[in-house]
Each structure stands twice: as C-alpha cells, then as structure tokens.
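Hi P.,

Sorry for the delay on this. The queue was packed all week, but I finally got your sequence through. Input first:
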Amino acid sequence: MRKLTPILGQFARDVINEARVNLTKDGRNVTNKLMDSMTFTVEEKGDGLYALDFIMEYYGKFVDKGVSGIEKKYNTPYSYRSKGGKQGLKGMPPPSAFDGWRIKRGIAPRDDKGRFLPRKAANFAIARSVFEKGIKPSLFFTKPFNKYFTDLSQVILDNFDLEIRKTFKKLEKNG
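Then the structure:
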C-alpha cells in the first residue's frame, strides 16, 4: 500500500487551514502568535504505524476548549479556581498578560473626567473579568479536526482499494 504520510499530511493541512480561518473569523486572532504557531509532524513508526502531532502555542487549548470562570461555567475540562488570598483573587490570570492584548485591541478605559485609567488598573480589570467569566469555548481547532477526521478513514480505504486493484492488474498482466 502507498505510504500514509501524504494522506495524513493533507488531513493535517486541511485541519490547520480551517482552524486559522476560524481564529480570524471569530476575532480572537489579535497578535497572530497562535495562528502562526500551528503546524504538524507526521512520522512513520514502522509496522504500519504512524504518528501525527499537531503543534501550537500552549494557550491554544484554552482558546479552543474554553475555561470556566469562578462565576460563569462552560462545558470544558479547564477552570479558574480561587485559591484564597485578598478578596479571593489568588489564582487569577496575571494582569500583565493582558497588556499587549489590550493595546492591540485599542482598549483604553477612561474615568469620569475623561482621563485615561492607568494601564495597570485596566489590565487588572480585564484579568478579573476573565477570572470571573472565564473564556468561552471557540472550538476553532476541534470543529475542523472532527470534520476532516470523519472523512479520513474513507480516504484511506479508497487509497487502499486503489492499491489492491493495481496489484491485481499487475498480477493478471504478468500471470
């Protein structure tokens, strides 16, 4: 049978291309860091075994599956948990993580007098909101993976069938 590496490679490219489109469509692709990090490897292990690995930034799984907040819950294996501390905020994501994101989004809150709030205050407010409300699942990767995975077995069977037919034709020709 023909090697599965090109078939698995095409499957992975299709999944990643659609995942990138999904990230762009839902507005979560602010810095392109996650989108640019998506790649894959296909490795033939021998004895007909193959390994296909999808690689992306660590936080991609949280963007895909979502994270339950301490107030709002989603159907996800991940959740923020209060670990005590002052006002129960220990366990909250670090406010500094939202600094670049906030700037790229153009979020610059103002006070009652129209003055910009300090960056630290704005970052803290966003971090607290994420801690309480969580991150809604986007399924940017899960949906295309499931979509193309259902077709993958048929593609493999079609290629296997084609190889069997070629083999029989060669045998008939030589036989």
